[in-house]
Backbone:
């Protein structure tokens, strides 16, 4: 009997979810929703494949970013070499014709054969003073060139004319060789645009992108968000693996949500030079090092990922901590997994939906309409193959995910099968206010004349 | 003893006589675990099959598969200390002064151009030409860096570049010291591959 | 080739950049750990002080406040500094055949960098008396022990009667505190030798018990093209930035993994050794590495260096070298002509490793300063200095052994390490560290982990490949006159491998090949270093009957087991 990779035997799923999630008193990890996929029916009926564009060798693709403006239909796909072959850089995919995407520009590190380790990892875009830029994070090892290089910044204002793309800056972090594994771009309430980066050292670096694009990259490192001293192993490690920064409407503050050493942390970063710890999520059963960590638009709930096999996504309610009743939260209110054997990777929240790039489980979408009972609502297998035998077995398949708020286009970057675009039935776009939430997501409002504030978001 | 050595040497030479590129049969003479045989090397040439370079510091040479017909090439660069009256050979700045012994097998004879070996600092800011691979795919030469890359390129005929390669990279390798990475990224602080998948 | 070196600032965010000096430092600023003494003044339990650490190196989890599993000890823990006389610089003493020298082993008061320390000395001198003797003579050294430890004197490199070799339990009983022992030292070879204890060298030698013994040819060595000779005994002391000596382990050595790498460099027992010379003066330097563990790479500024000899005599051919890499217990004799007036720094010029950051960086310690006066040296020896002589006598002597050079080894030794009960943080960190081990550890980049390892947790091993026996389980036996080839392989794939300066007592040997490559310019030696991953072929002339030791000359490695003995039966069955 063929066992569903998407829907395991209920009893085993239930037991393992309990075991590994440690949510003894909460709801078990959920994955229910649709029948199992098959090679001829790889997705749920409510998922439409808009397009698929293979990009090259196996294990050659990393994260993805989708521009939000409909007039700029461009996706940026990080290119890495995790397998035996592959480029190290970034591809720009033109989605002017969604059903026929086309790579219109390729940035590659020079002498890429001589560069150690993976190359392009995370990728983000931003808009500043009317120009559009893309930041490609890079990771090169110390045995080869550019081990101190964390990111390259390209001016992509002139797209679709690829000849106008130009390199603006290279951000280097010689103090912490090994590059930037993850990045996040945030338009801060102070008006600045900041790049938050992981580094092979304590804390997260913060770069003022205004300085970077104006040529003052030497002085662009303006802040460092620490890992609390109490975090186990803090001090020398890559303090954070991943993070998210968002406006918190209730308090009118900028908040940093970081996953890394010892768990997850929420900081008030309204004053970047003096970040204030607000909430810690440590002592979580089964969590030693946090990965992706994303809040709901109002900042109450958080979805926390750990990059361990068998680990589900955990959903926490921060309200007791935000109310000052506790300072640390260690028990999730629920958990979700696509397949207990695997692990999921990145996710994007468009409340109540959570769009997941689930490695071997492809695109997964679940709803947090009831945060205590997440339910799978759609999926599509972008990788139909076996786990790796020559690399970490589960690090294969859907790596990154992004969502265009204007029309609900969903994109996936699959490590081996390349670029995918989808639409989900009934999801024609996202505006938080339609769901009784602030309109806060990873998509930034670059053109807002005024910076957001509590009143505006509650209107 | 001398005759015996000569016979052994002759046997090695015969075993490593290059096979014409047109010969489609795979060469049975390939043994990358054996030190490369080098003739006319610049410094400390290996002129005895008894040479026993440290395997620990051997540099695997990995094909880029950018040049047609070279994807199956396998190579290794061994290092020995340069000639010196001391137990270890150093350059004036304290760097190790090494002799690279490069050997590549399964390389076809290119219809044009030559395979040339280079050494370069990890930043590729400095490059030295080790030399042209001989008919057996071997070449030796000195290098005075503690961390470096070895690059085999296909150089066009008639272009004697000394300061850097112009042709495509066919194989490359990293000195063992390249595996020395910041401990902030691995070891007791984080379980992470250090130099596994760069190539 | 155009060489561009880019020194990028080092240091984690918000912390001090790691100093990466590219030139010689002033003597007053030569402490490589200046400013890095994170635990200075912080008394740890049991009187321990932690060695200075690079501030960029984070404290390993669980090791904050940890101390080695041994009793901390320094001489002033037992004794009052003021009760002892101030030691004096070494004085030369020439001994004729049959002469006797009284040699007192006692605590002494030493001044280093302006601060007084209670240390040890021979005849209240630092280094011990410089003994000159004529080749073929026998001199008598009467040793009295007035320190708290048993001691002996080992006459390093001298093919003397094994009863006087100074190995406790093998050639003599240890000289207990308050007792004496008389050595009859016969010197059959010309060369620069040295003497030191063979009991807890990690303490006694490090505290100052060492001296040189120059054996001159019967003709007095006249005719050498130099103006004068200088001794340079190179050493290092492990101190905090504040100048406190780091205690020793009383029952067992600490720093057992790498040996005790010091933070303050000494030449002839002082941190500010100065030499004066005339312009054009040619000085013959006799270098001896008396450090517990540290190898040096000695340069004389930009002056040319002519290599003349090593442990047990001259090389076949004099040669120009850019520097002199010298391992513990090795000696090298070099001629240097100081061509221009001014100052010349004698330096230890190395590429150090920062394991935490995974980088090499240039590092320079100033060992001594030579002030060169304007006045020209007379006579002018420039012409003779330029000449590289071939020592036909050495070539002829070695010729008798060349037939053995290519033969298969008679014995094969592999160097290994075993550890037990080391803190897991150290084990994990060391395992990560061994992604790459360099051939020679020129610096101690992880002083805390090294310091926390003791001789009870670390066993350094010499393994006989033929029998599988290890250390004192090895029993080799030879007959006088045997010529024995020993191949030493430094196994690189174990836990924290490291170079080993291998010393063979009572015999002399030739290093005939390294990594299978024949050595081109030979000289007789008694100590030779085998780098990590390398093989070294020694051709040993078993000329001297008796029971002898072979061991690593890193003091802590020796104490951690890395030794064995062998017997050479005399022709008369002696």
Residues:
């Amino acid at each position: 009997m063929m066992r569903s990779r998407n829907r395991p035997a209920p009893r085993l799923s239930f037991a393992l979810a309990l075991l590994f999630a440690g949510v003894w008193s909460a709801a078990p990890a959920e994955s229910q929703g649709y029948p199992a996929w098959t090679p001829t029916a790889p997705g749920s009926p409510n998922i439409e494949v808009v397009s698929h564009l293979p990009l090259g060798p196996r294990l050659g693709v990393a994260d993805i970013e989708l521009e939000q403006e409909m007039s700029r239909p461009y996706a940026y796909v990080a290119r890495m070499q995790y397998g035996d072959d592959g480029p190290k850089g970034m591809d720009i995919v033109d989605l002017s014709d969604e059903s026929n995407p086309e790579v219109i520009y390729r940035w590659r590190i020079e002498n890429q054969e001589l560069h150690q380790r993976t190359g392009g990892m995370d990728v983000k875009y931003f808009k500043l003073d009317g120009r559009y830029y893309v930041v490609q994070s890079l990771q090169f090892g110390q045995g080869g060139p550019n081990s101190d290089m964390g990111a390259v910044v390209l001016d992509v204002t002139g797209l679709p004319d690829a000849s106008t793309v130009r390199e603006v800056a290279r951000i280097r972090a010689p103090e912490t060789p090994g590059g930037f594994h993850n990045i996040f771009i945030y338009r801060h309430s102070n008006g600045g645009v900041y790049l938050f980066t992981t580094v092979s050292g304590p804390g997260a670096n913060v770069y003022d992108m205004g300085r970077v694009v104006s040529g003052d990259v030497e002085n662009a490192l303006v802040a460092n968000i620490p890992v609390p001293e109490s975090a186990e192993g803090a001090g020398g490690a890559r303090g954070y693996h991943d993070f998210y920064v968002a406006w918190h409407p209730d308090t009118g503050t900028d908040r940093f949500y970081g996953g890394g050493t010892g768990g997850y942390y929420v900081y008030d970063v309204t004053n970047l030079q003096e970040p204030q710890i607000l909430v810690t999520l440590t002592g979580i059963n089964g969590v030693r090092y946090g990965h992706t960590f994303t809040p709901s638009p109002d900042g109450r709930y958080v979805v926390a990922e750990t990059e361990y096999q068998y680990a589900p996504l955990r959903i926490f309610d921060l309200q007791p901590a935000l109310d000052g009743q506790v300072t640390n939260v260690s028990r999730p209110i629920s958990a979700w997994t696509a397949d207990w054997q695997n692990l999921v990777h990145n996710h994007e929240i468009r409340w109540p939906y959570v769009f997941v790039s689930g490695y071997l489980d492809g695109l997964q979408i679940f709803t947090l309409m009831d945060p205590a009972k997440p339910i799978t609502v759609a999926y599509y297998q972008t990788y139909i193959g076996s786990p790796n035998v020559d690399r970490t077995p589960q690090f294969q398949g859907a790596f990154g995910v992004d969502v265009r708020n204007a029309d609900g286009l969903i994109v996936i970057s699959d490590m081996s099968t390349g670029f995918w675009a989808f639409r989900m039935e009934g999801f024609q776009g996202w505006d938080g206010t339609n769901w009784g939430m602030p309109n806060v997501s990873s998509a930034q409002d670059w053109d807002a004349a005024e910076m957001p504030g509590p009143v505006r978001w509650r209107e | 003893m001398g005759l015996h050595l000569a016979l052994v040497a002759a046997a090695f030479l015969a075993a490593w006589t290059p096979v014409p590129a047109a010969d489609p049969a795979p060469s049975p003479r390939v043994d990358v675990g054996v030190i490369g045989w080098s003739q006319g090397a610049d410094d400390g040439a290996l002129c005895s099959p008894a040479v026993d370079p440290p395997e620990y510091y051997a540099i695997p040479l990995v094909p880029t598969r950018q040049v047609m017909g070279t994807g199956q090439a396998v190579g290794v660069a061994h290092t020995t200390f340069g000639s010196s009256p001391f137990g270890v050979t150093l350059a004036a700045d304290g760097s190790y002064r090494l002799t690279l012994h490069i050997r590549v097998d399964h390389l076809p004879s290119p219809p044009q151009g030559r395979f040339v070996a280079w050494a370069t600092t990890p930043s590729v800011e400095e490059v030295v030409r080790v030399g042209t691979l001989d008919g057996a795919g071997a070449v030796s030469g000195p290098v005075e860096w503690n961390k470096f890359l070895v690059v085999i390129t296909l150089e066009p005929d008639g272009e004697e570049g000394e300061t850097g390669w112009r042709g495509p990279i066919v194989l490359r390798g990293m000195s063992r010291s390249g595996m020395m990475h910041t401990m902030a990224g691995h070891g007791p602080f984080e379980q992470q591959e250090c130099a596994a998948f760069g190539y | 080739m155009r060489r561009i070196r880019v020194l990028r600032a080092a240091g984690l965010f918000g912390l001090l950049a790691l100093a990466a000096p590219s030139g010689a430092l002033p003597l007053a600023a030569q402490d490589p750990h200046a400013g890095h003494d994170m635990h200075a003044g912080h008394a740890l339990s049991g009187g321990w002080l932690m060695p200075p650490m690079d501030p960029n190196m984070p404290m390993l989890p669980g090791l904050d406040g940890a101390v080695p599993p041994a009793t901390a000890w320094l001489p002033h823990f037992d004794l009052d500094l003021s009760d002892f006389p101030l030691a004096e610089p070494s004085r030369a003493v020439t001994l004729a055949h049959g002469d006797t020298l009284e040699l007192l082993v006692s605590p002494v008061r030493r001044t280093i960098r302006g601060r007084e320390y209670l240390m040890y000395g021979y005849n209240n001198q630092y280094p011990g008396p410089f003994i000159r003797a004529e080749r073929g003579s026998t001199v008598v050294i009467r040793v009295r022990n007035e320190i708290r430890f048993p001691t002996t004197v080992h006459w390093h490199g001298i093919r003397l009667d094994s009863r006087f070799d100074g190995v406790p339990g093998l050639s003599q009983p240890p000289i207990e505190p308050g007792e004496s022992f008389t050595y009859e030292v016969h010197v059959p070879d010309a060369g620069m030798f040295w003497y030191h204890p063979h009991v807890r060298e990690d303490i006694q030698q490090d505290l100052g018990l060492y001296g040189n013994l120059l054996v001159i040819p019967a003709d007095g060595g006249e005719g050498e093209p130099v103006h004068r000779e200088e001794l340079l005994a190179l050493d290092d002391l492990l101190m905090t930035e504040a100048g406190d000596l780091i205690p020793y382990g009383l029952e067992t050595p600490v720093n057992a993994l790498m040996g005790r790498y010091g933070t303050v460099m000494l030449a002839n027992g002082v941190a500010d050794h100065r030499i004066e010379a005339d312009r054009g003066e040619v000085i013959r330097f006799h270098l001896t590495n008396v450090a517990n563990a540290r190898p040096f790479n000695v340069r004389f500024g930009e002056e040319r260096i002519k290599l003349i000899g090593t442990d047990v005599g001259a090389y076949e051919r004099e040669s120009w070298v850019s520097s002199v890499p010298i391992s513990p217990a090795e000696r090298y004799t070099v001629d240097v002509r100081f061509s221009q007036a001014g100052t010349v720094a004698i330096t230890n010029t190395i590429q150090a490793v920062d394991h935490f950051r995974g980088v090499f960086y240039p590092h320079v310690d100033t060992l001594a300063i030579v002030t060169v006066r304007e006045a020209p040296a007379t006579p002018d020896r420039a012409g003779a200095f330029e000449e590289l002589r071939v020592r036909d006598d050495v070539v002829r002597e070695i010729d008798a052994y060349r037939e053995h050079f290519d033969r298969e080894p008679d014995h094969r030794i592999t160097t290994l390490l075993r550890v037990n009960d080391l803190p897991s943080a150290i084990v994990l960190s060391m395992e990560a560290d061994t992604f790459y081990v360099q051939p020679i550890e020129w610096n101690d980049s992880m002083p805390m982990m090294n310091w926390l390892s003791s001789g009870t947790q670390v066993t350094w091993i010499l393994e006989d490949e033929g029998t599988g026996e290890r250390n004192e389980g090895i029993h080799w036996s030879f007959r006088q006159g045997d010529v024995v080839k020993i191949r030493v392989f430094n196994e690189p794939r174990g836990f924290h491998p490291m170079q080993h300066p291998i010393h063979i007592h009572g015999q002399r040997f030739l290093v005939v090949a390294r990594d299978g490559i024949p050595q081109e310019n030979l000289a007789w030696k008694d100590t030779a270093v085998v780098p990590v991953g390398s093989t070294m072929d020694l051709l040993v002339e078993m000329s001297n009957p008796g029971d002898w030791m072979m061991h690593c000359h890193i003091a802590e490695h020796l104490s951690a087991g890395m030794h064995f003995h062998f017997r050479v039966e005399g022709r008369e069955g002696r």
About this structure: Chain B touches chain C through 50 residues (CB under 8 Å). Residues 1-49, 186-193 of chain B have pLDDT under 50 and may be disordered.
